[in-house]
Design a protein that fits this description.
370 residues, alpha+beta, Serine Threonine Protein Phosphatase 5, Tetratricopeptide repeat, Immunoglobulin-like, five-stranded mixed β-sheet, 17 strands, 21% strand
Amino acid sequence: MICPNCKQEIATGSIYCEHCGKTIQIVPDYNALDDVLPSILEDKPKAVNKQLHKEPSSKKETKTCGRNKTTLRVVIAAFAVLLISIVLVSVAMYRSSYTYYMRQATKFEEAKDYSSAQFYYGVAVSSEDTVEARLGLGRMDYRLGQFEEAKKELLAVVSEDSSCYEAFEILCKIYEADRDYYSIEELATYTKDEQSLEIINLALILPPSFSEKGGKYDDDIVLYLSAPKNQSIYYSLDGTNPEDGLLYDNEKGIYLSDGVTTVRAVCVTEDGKFGFEAKEEYKISYKAPGYPTVSPMNGTFHEETYITITAENEEDRIFYTWDGSTPTVDSAEYTEPIVVPEGNNILSIIVINRHDLISEVLQCNYIYKP
Protein backbone atom coordinates (compact mmCIF):
# COMPACT_ATOMS: atom_id res chain seq x y z
CA MET A 1 0.00 0.00 0.00
CA ILE A 2 1.41 3.38 -0.87
CA CYS A 3 1.25 6.41 1.52
CA PRO A 4 -0.73 9.07 -0.14
CA ASN A 5 1.48 11.68 1.50
CA CYS A 6 5.12 10.57 1.00
CA LYS A 7 4.49 7.96 -1.65
CA GLN A 8 6.48 5.31 0.34
CA GLU A 9 5.30 1.78 0.56
CA ILE A 10 3.83 0.85 3.89
CA ALA A 11 2.47 -2.36 5.34
CA THR A 12 -0.99 -3.39 4.42
CA GLY A 13 -3.51 -2.55 7.15
CA SER A 14 -1.32 0.20 8.75
CA ILE A 15 -3.26 3.17 9.95
CA TYR A 16 -0.23 5.51 9.85
CA CYS A 17 2.89 5.91 7.66
CA GLU A 18 6.02 4.84 9.40
CA HIS A 19 7.99 7.04 7.05
CA CYS A 20 6.20 10.40 7.38
CA GLY A 21 3.96 9.72 10.37
CA LYS A 22 0.73 10.76 8.62
CA THR A 23 -2.47 8.96 9.46
CA ILE A 24 -3.66 6.79 6.67
CA GLN A 25 -7.40 6.94 5.79
CA ILE A 26 -8.57 3.67 4.51
CA VAL A 27 -10.87 4.15 1.50
CA PRO A 28 -12.82 1.27 0.06
CA ASP A 29 -12.21 0.25 -3.52
CA TYR A 30 -15.83 1.10 -4.57
CA ASN A 31 -16.40 4.74 -5.47
CA ALA A 32 -20.01 5.87 -6.08
CA LEU A 33 -18.73 8.69 -8.19
CA ASP A 34 -17.68 6.14 -10.71
CA ASP A 35 -21.37 5.49 -11.36
CA VAL A 36 -22.71 9.03 -11.00
CA LEU A 37 -19.93 11.03 -12.63
CA PRO A 38 -20.42 9.71 -16.17
CA SER A 39 -24.10 10.71 -16.09
CA ILE A 40 -23.25 14.10 -14.60
CA LEU A 41 -20.59 14.63 -17.19
CA GLU A 42 -23.02 13.56 -19.88
CA ASP A 43 -25.82 15.88 -18.68
CA LYS A 44 -23.69 18.95 -17.87
CA PRO A 45 -23.12 20.15 -21.42
CA LYS A 46 -26.89 20.04 -21.95
CA ALA A 47 -27.48 22.11 -18.85
CA VAL A 48 -24.75 24.46 -19.85
CA ASN A 49 -26.10 24.72 -23.37
CA LYS A 50 -29.57 25.24 -22.02
CA GLN A 51 -28.24 27.91 -19.71
CA LEU A 52 -26.33 29.49 -22.55
CA HIS A 53 -29.43 29.36 -24.73
CA LYS A 54 -31.71 30.97 -22.10
CA GLU A 55 -29.42 33.83 -21.21
CA PRO A 56 -29.60 35.67 -24.53
CA SER A 57 -33.39 35.16 -24.63
CA SER A 58 -33.80 36.75 -21.20
CA LYS A 59 -31.82 39.80 -22.24
CA LYS A 60 -33.82 40.15 -25.43
CA GLU A 61 -37.07 39.88 -23.53
CA THR A 62 -35.85 42.52 -21.07
CA LYS A 63 -34.98 44.90 -23.89
CA THR A 64 -38.25 44.25 -25.69
CA CYS A 65 -40.23 44.73 -22.50
CA GLY A 66 -38.39 48.00 -21.85
CA ARG A 67 -39.11 49.21 -25.32
CA ASN A 68 -42.76 48.20 -25.03
CA LYS A 69 -43.13 50.05 -21.73
CA THR A 70 -41.55 53.17 -23.20
CA THR A 71 -43.83 53.02 -26.22
CA LEU A 72 -46.88 52.55 -23.99
CA ARG A 73 -45.93 55.56 -21.91
CA VAL A 74 -45.54 57.65 -25.06
CA VAL A 75 -48.92 56.48 -26.38
CA ILE A 76 -50.63 57.21 -23.05
CA ALA A 77 -49.02 60.63 -22.87
CA ALA A 78 -50.04 61.42 -26.44
CA PHE A 79 -53.60 60.25 -25.77
CA ALA A 80 -53.75 62.38 -22.63
CA VAL A 81 -52.54 65.43 -24.55
CA LEU A 82 -55.07 64.73 -27.29
CA LEU A 83 -57.85 64.29 -24.76
CA ILE A 84 -56.94 67.52 -22.97
CA SER A 85 -56.76 69.33 -26.31
CA ILE A 86 -60.19 68.02 -27.26
CA VAL A 87 -61.59 69.11 -23.91
CA LEU A 88 -60.00 72.56 -24.19
CA VAL A 89 -61.21 72.98 -27.76
CA SER A 90 -64.69 71.82 -26.75
CA VAL A 91 -64.77 74.24 -23.84
CA ALA A 92 -63.53 77.05 -26.08
CA MET A 93 -66.13 76.22 -28.71
CA TYR A 94 -68.88 76.08 -26.08
CA ARG A 95 -67.81 79.41 -24.60
CA SER A 96 -68.12 80.95 -28.05
CA SER A 97 -71.49 79.35 -28.81
CA TYR A 98 -74.98 80.82 -28.95
CA THR A 99 -76.12 78.43 -26.21
CA TYR A 100 -73.42 79.62 -23.82
CA TYR A 101 -74.17 83.30 -24.47
CA MET A 102 -77.89 82.76 -23.87
CA ARG A 103 -77.27 80.86 -20.64
CA GLN A 104 -74.96 83.57 -19.39
CA ALA A 105 -77.46 86.26 -20.35
CA THR A 106 -80.26 84.44 -18.54
CA LYS A 107 -78.09 83.94 -15.47
CA PHE A 108 -77.20 87.64 -15.24
CA GLU A 109 -80.78 88.71 -15.93
CA GLU A 110 -82.04 86.52 -13.08
CA ALA A 111 -79.40 88.13 -10.87
CA LYS A 112 -80.69 91.55 -12.05
CA ASP A 113 -77.29 92.39 -13.52
CA TYR A 114 -78.93 93.90 -16.58
CA SER A 115 -75.76 95.41 -18.05
CA SER A 116 -74.01 92.03 -18.18
CA ALA A 117 -77.17 90.36 -19.44
CA GLN A 118 -77.44 93.02 -22.16
CA PHE A 119 -73.87 92.28 -23.23
CA TYR A 120 -74.43 88.53 -23.55
CA TYR A 121 -77.77 88.93 -25.32
CA GLY A 122 -76.01 91.24 -27.77
CA VAL A 123 -73.25 88.71 -28.42
CA ALA A 124 -75.89 86.01 -28.83
CA VAL A 125 -77.63 88.12 -31.49
CA SER A 126 -74.29 88.53 -33.29
CA SER A 127 -73.73 84.78 -33.06
CA GLU A 128 -77.20 83.71 -34.12
CA ASP A 129 -79.91 86.27 -34.82
CA THR A 130 -82.98 84.72 -33.20
CA VAL A 131 -86.25 86.14 -31.90
CA GLU A 132 -85.38 84.90 -28.42
CA ALA A 133 -82.02 86.70 -28.37
CA ARG A 134 -83.40 89.96 -29.76
CA LEU A 135 -86.31 89.86 -27.32
CA GLY A 136 -83.83 89.46 -24.45
CA LEU A 137 -81.69 92.32 -25.76
CA GLY A 138 -84.71 94.59 -26.18
CA ARG A 139 -85.89 93.69 -22.70
CA MET A 140 -82.51 94.65 -21.22
CA ASP A 141 -82.45 97.91 -23.21
CA TYR A 142 -85.83 98.73 -21.71
CA ARG A 143 -84.65 97.81 -18.21
CA LEU A 144 -81.65 100.12 -18.61
CA GLY A 145 -83.76 103.00 -19.91
CA GLN A 146 -82.35 102.81 -23.44
CA PHE A 147 -85.76 103.15 -25.06
CA GLU A 148 -84.73 103.94 -28.64
CA GLU A 149 -82.53 100.83 -28.75
CA ALA A 150 -85.32 98.81 -27.14
CA LYS A 151 -87.83 99.95 -29.78
CA LYS A 152 -85.45 98.98 -32.56
CA GLU A 153 -84.91 95.45 -31.22
CA LEU A 154 -88.54 94.82 -30.26
CA LEU A 155 -89.93 96.07 -33.57
CA ALA A 156 -87.61 93.59 -35.25
CA VAL A 157 -89.06 90.90 -32.97
CA VAL A 158 -92.73 91.64 -33.76
CA SER A 159 -91.88 91.86 -37.45
CA GLU A 160 -90.59 88.29 -37.18
CA ASP A 161 -93.09 86.94 -34.66
CA SER A 162 -96.49 88.62 -34.61
CA SER A 163 -97.53 86.64 -31.54
CA CYS A 164 -94.66 87.72 -29.29
CA TYR A 165 -96.87 89.20 -26.58
CA GLU A 166 -94.01 90.34 -24.36
CA ALA A 167 -92.54 92.46 -27.15
CA PHE A 168 -95.92 94.14 -27.79
CA GLU A 169 -96.40 94.82 -24.07
CA ILE A 170 -92.98 96.47 -23.68
CA LEU A 171 -93.44 98.54 -26.84
CA CYS A 172 -96.83 99.76 -25.60
CA LYS A 173 -95.26 100.78 -22.28
CA ILE A 174 -92.53 102.74 -24.06
CA TYR A 175 -95.01 104.51 -26.34
CA GLU A 176 -97.37 105.22 -23.43
CA ALA A 177 -94.52 106.88 -21.53
CA ASP A 178 -93.89 109.08 -24.58
CA ARG A 179 -97.63 109.73 -25.09
CA ASP A 180 -96.98 108.38 -28.56
CA TYR A 181 -100.36 106.79 -29.17
CA TYR A 182 -99.98 107.00 -32.93
CA SER A 183 -97.13 104.50 -32.69
CA ILE A 184 -99.29 102.24 -30.52
CA GLU A 185 -101.97 102.42 -33.19
CA GLU A 186 -99.37 101.58 -35.83
CA LEU A 187 -98.40 98.43 -33.91
CA ALA A 188 -101.68 96.91 -35.06
CA THR A 189 -100.23 96.73 -38.58
CA TYR A 190 -97.65 94.20 -37.36
CA THR A 191 -100.10 91.51 -36.33
CA LYS A 192 -103.43 89.81 -36.85
CA ASP A 193 -103.08 87.77 -33.68
CA GLU A 194 -106.10 88.39 -31.44
CA GLN A 195 -104.20 88.46 -28.17
CA SER A 196 -101.58 90.82 -29.57
CA LEU A 197 -104.32 93.13 -30.83
CA GLU A 198 -105.99 93.02 -27.42
CA ILE A 199 -102.73 94.17 -25.80
CA ILE A 200 -102.59 97.07 -28.26
CA ASN A 201 -106.26 97.99 -27.72
CA LEU A 202 -105.83 98.10 -23.96
CA ALA A 203 -102.97 100.55 -24.37
CA LEU A 204 -104.75 102.58 -27.02
CA ILE A 205 -106.84 105.33 -25.39
CA LEU A 206 -108.71 107.11 -28.14
CA PRO A 207 -109.18 110.91 -28.17
CA PRO A 208 -112.49 112.55 -27.28
CA SER A 209 -114.83 113.51 -30.10
CA PHE A 210 -115.95 117.12 -30.70
CA SER A 211 -119.52 118.17 -31.48
CA GLU A 212 -118.26 120.95 -33.78
CA LYS A 213 -115.35 120.83 -36.17
CA GLY A 214 -112.72 123.49 -36.04
CA GLY A 215 -113.08 126.38 -38.45
CA LYS A 216 -114.57 129.86 -38.86
CA TYR A 217 -117.76 130.89 -37.12
CA ASP A 218 -119.59 134.21 -36.96
CA ASP A 219 -121.21 133.61 -33.62
CA ASP A 220 -120.63 131.94 -30.30
CA ILE A 221 -120.81 128.19 -30.12
CA VAL A 222 -121.14 125.66 -27.34
CA LEU A 223 -118.75 122.79 -27.88
CA TYR A 224 -119.56 119.35 -26.46
CA LEU A 225 -116.98 116.58 -26.01
CA SER A 226 -117.58 112.86 -25.62
CA ALA A 227 -115.40 110.00 -24.38
CA PRO A 228 -115.72 106.23 -24.04
CA LYS A 229 -117.50 104.89 -20.99
CA ASN A 230 -115.69 105.22 -17.65
CA GLN A 231 -113.25 107.78 -19.04
CA SER A 232 -112.97 111.45 -18.13
CA ILE A 233 -111.86 114.37 -20.29
CA TYR A 234 -109.38 117.12 -19.54
CA TYR A 235 -109.05 120.14 -21.81
CA SER A 236 -107.30 123.48 -22.24
CA LEU A 237 -108.24 126.61 -24.21
CA ASP A 238 -104.89 128.43 -24.15
CA GLY A 239 -102.75 125.93 -26.05
CA THR A 240 -101.23 124.34 -22.94
CA ASN A 241 -101.06 120.61 -22.20
CA PRO A 242 -104.63 119.41 -21.62
CA GLU A 243 -103.45 116.91 -19.00
CA ASP A 244 -102.83 119.93 -16.77
CA GLY A 245 -106.06 121.61 -17.82
CA LEU A 246 -109.69 121.63 -16.75
CA LEU A 247 -111.98 118.69 -16.07
CA TYR A 248 -114.71 118.71 -18.69
CA ASP A 249 -118.32 119.10 -17.54
CA ASN A 250 -120.60 117.41 -20.02
CA GLU A 251 -123.67 119.34 -18.87
CA LYS A 252 -122.12 122.75 -19.48
CA GLY A 253 -119.96 122.03 -22.48
CA ILE A 254 -117.34 124.57 -23.55
CA TYR A 255 -118.56 128.05 -24.48
CA LEU A 256 -116.51 129.67 -27.29
CA SER A 257 -116.85 133.35 -28.13
CA ASP A 258 -115.26 135.98 -30.39
CA GLY A 259 -111.63 135.40 -31.25
CA VAL A 260 -109.34 132.45 -31.97
CA THR A 261 -109.48 129.55 -29.51
CA THR A 262 -107.43 126.36 -29.64
CA VAL A 263 -109.13 123.50 -27.85
CA ARG A 264 -106.93 120.59 -26.79
CA ALA A 265 -108.51 117.62 -25.03
CA VAL A 266 -107.56 114.11 -23.88
CA CYS A 267 -109.35 111.18 -22.32
CA VAL A 268 -108.08 109.67 -19.10
CA THR A 269 -108.87 106.20 -17.76
CA GLU A 270 -109.88 105.38 -14.20
CA ASP A 271 -106.31 104.35 -13.42
CA GLY A 272 -104.96 107.72 -14.58
CA LYS A 273 -103.68 106.85 -18.06
CA PHE A 274 -104.00 109.63 -20.62
CA GLY A 275 -104.68 108.84 -24.23
CA PHE A 276 -104.65 110.44 -27.64
CA GLU A 277 -105.07 114.18 -27.83
CA ALA A 278 -107.76 115.83 -29.90
CA LYS A 279 -107.11 119.37 -31.08
CA GLU A 280 -109.27 121.88 -32.95
CA GLU A 281 -108.95 125.60 -33.64
CA TYR A 282 -112.02 127.82 -33.72
CA LYS A 283 -112.01 131.30 -35.29
CA ILE A 284 -115.09 133.21 -34.24
CA SER A 285 -115.58 136.62 -35.78
CA TYR A 286 -118.90 138.29 -35.01
CA LYS A 287 -120.73 139.91 -37.89
CA ALA A 288 -123.33 142.60 -37.87
CA PRO A 289 -126.89 141.39 -38.24
CA GLY A 290 -128.50 141.46 -41.63
CA TYR A 291 -131.62 143.33 -42.72
CA PRO A 292 -134.81 142.33 -40.98
CA THR A 293 -137.85 141.03 -42.83
CA VAL A 294 -140.51 143.75 -43.27
CA SER A 295 -144.09 143.15 -44.36
CA PRO A 296 -145.38 144.95 -46.28
CA MET A 297 -142.11 146.29 -47.57
CA ASN A 298 -143.34 149.35 -49.53
CA GLY A 299 -146.53 150.53 -51.13
CA THR A 300 -149.45 152.89 -51.44
CA PHE A 301 -152.39 152.21 -49.21
CA HIS A 302 -155.93 153.59 -48.86
CA GLU A 303 -156.80 151.64 -45.75
CA GLU A 304 -155.17 151.42 -42.38
CA THR A 305 -152.20 149.07 -42.66
CA TYR A 306 -149.92 147.42 -40.07
CA ILE A 307 -146.26 146.69 -40.64
CA THR A 308 -144.48 143.64 -39.10
CA ILE A 309 -140.70 143.50 -38.71
CA THR A 310 -138.81 140.28 -37.98
CA ALA A 311 -135.05 139.98 -37.22
CA GLU A 312 -132.88 136.97 -38.03
CA ASN A 313 -132.50 136.14 -34.34
CA GLU A 314 -135.18 136.42 -31.74
CA GLU A 315 -132.81 138.07 -29.26
CA ASP A 316 -131.94 140.85 -31.70
CA ARG A 317 -133.50 144.28 -31.05
CA ILE A 318 -135.10 146.49 -33.71
CA PHE A 319 -135.24 150.30 -33.70
CA TYR A 320 -136.98 152.59 -36.20
CA THR A 321 -137.83 156.19 -37.18
CA TRP A 322 -140.43 157.76 -39.50
CA ASP A 323 -138.70 161.06 -40.18
CA GLY A 324 -135.89 159.74 -42.40
CA SER A 325 -133.23 159.97 -39.70
CA THR A 326 -130.94 157.06 -38.82
CA PRO A 327 -132.28 155.08 -35.86
CA THR A 328 -130.27 154.61 -32.67
CA VAL A 329 -130.84 152.84 -29.37
CA ASP A 330 -132.66 155.99 -28.32
CA SER A 331 -135.14 155.64 -31.18
CA ALA A 332 -138.45 153.82 -30.99
CA GLU A 333 -137.99 150.08 -30.44
CA TYR A 334 -140.11 147.70 -32.38
CA THR A 335 -142.08 145.41 -30.09
CA GLU A 336 -145.32 144.91 -32.01
CA PRO A 337 -146.74 145.66 -35.49
CA ILE A 338 -146.82 149.36 -36.26
CA VAL A 339 -149.43 151.27 -38.26
CA VAL A 340 -148.57 153.15 -41.44
CA PRO A 341 -149.09 156.87 -40.79
CA GLU A 342 -151.05 159.03 -43.19
CA GLY A 343 -149.10 160.67 -45.99
CA ASN A 344 -145.82 159.86 -47.74
CA ASN A 345 -143.39 158.44 -45.15
CA ILE A 346 -139.95 156.82 -44.97
CA LEU A 347 -139.53 154.02 -42.41
CA SER A 348 -135.86 153.65 -41.32
CA ILE A 349 -134.94 150.43 -39.47
CA ILE A 350 -131.80 149.06 -37.74
CA VAL A 351 -131.14 145.78 -35.95
CA ILE A 352 -128.81 145.44 -32.97
CA ASN A 353 -127.72 141.92 -32.04
CA ARG A 354 -126.61 140.57 -28.68
CA HIS A 355 -123.00 141.51 -29.41
CA ASP A 356 -124.14 145.14 -29.87
CA LEU A 357 -123.31 145.05 -33.53
CA ILE A 358 -125.62 147.18 -35.69
CA SER A 359 -127.00 146.31 -39.07
CA GLU A 360 -127.12 148.60 -42.05
CA VAL A 361 -130.11 150.98 -42.17
CA LEU A 362 -133.07 149.63 -44.06
CA GLN A 363 -135.52 152.24 -45.48
CA CYS A 364 -139.01 151.56 -46.73
CA ASN A 365 -141.47 154.02 -48.42
CA TYR A 366 -145.17 154.01 -47.49
CA ILE A 367 -147.92 156.23 -48.92
CA TYR A 368 -151.17 156.19 -47.09
CA LYS A 369 -154.14 158.07 -48.55
CA PRO A 370 -157.37 157.26 -46.67
